[in-house]
């Protein structure tokens, strides 16, 4: 029996928990306001992983996409108690299965510490990172 249940239903998200995880525990969204987080959720495809039995949310991810050519996988977070138990793999597997239906040309992400996880799903380093540019805080 699976320990977790994957969902694409944004109505199931524990928005307060997601905000707390990202604004207090993540390295990339520290200090993000609840208003900004809610706007990000509302403007994105959202994914949750929930403990079977209790229904408690244990992981979150969102994707910014045009739904036709490109997607950015971001705000991936797994609660401390669920790390190392397959939750991250199940979350990413579900996200990518959902995105595969869109036949996107490219899915991009950025990570400081989870390269090994994402490589298992076919992600690689950019062939030519010098063609990518950024505006704003890096």
Describe, in plain words, how this protein is organized in 3D:
The chain has helices at residues 15-25, 34-42, 87-100, 115-119, and strands at residues 4-7, 45-51, 57-65, 70-78, 106-109. The protein is α+β, with helices and mostly antiparallel strands and 138 residues long. A 5-stranded mixed β-sheet has the order 1-2-3-4-5. Strand 3 (57-65) and strand 4 (70-78) form a beta hairpin. The protein is globular. The chain starts with a strand and ends in a 19-residue tail after the last helix. The model has no long low-confidence stretch (mean pLDDT 95).
Concise summary:
With 138 residues, the chain is an alpha+beta fold. It has four helices and five strands, in the order βααβββαβα.
Element-level helix/strand string: EHHEEEHEH
The beta-strand count equals 5
Q: Tell me the fraction of residues in β-strands, as a range.
A: 15-25%
Shape: globular
Largest sheet: 5 strands, mixed
Mean pLDDT, to the nearest integer, reads: 95
What's the arrangement of strands in the largest beta sheet? 1-2-3-4-5
Q: What Rg is obtained from the alpha carbons, in whole angstroms?
A: 15 Å
Kindly name the structural category.
Answer: alpha+beta
User: Could you estimate the helical fraction of the residues in percent?
Assistant: 25-40%
| Beginning-to-end CA distance, first to last residue | 42 Å
Unreliable stretches covering 5 or more consecutive residues: none
Number of helices: 4
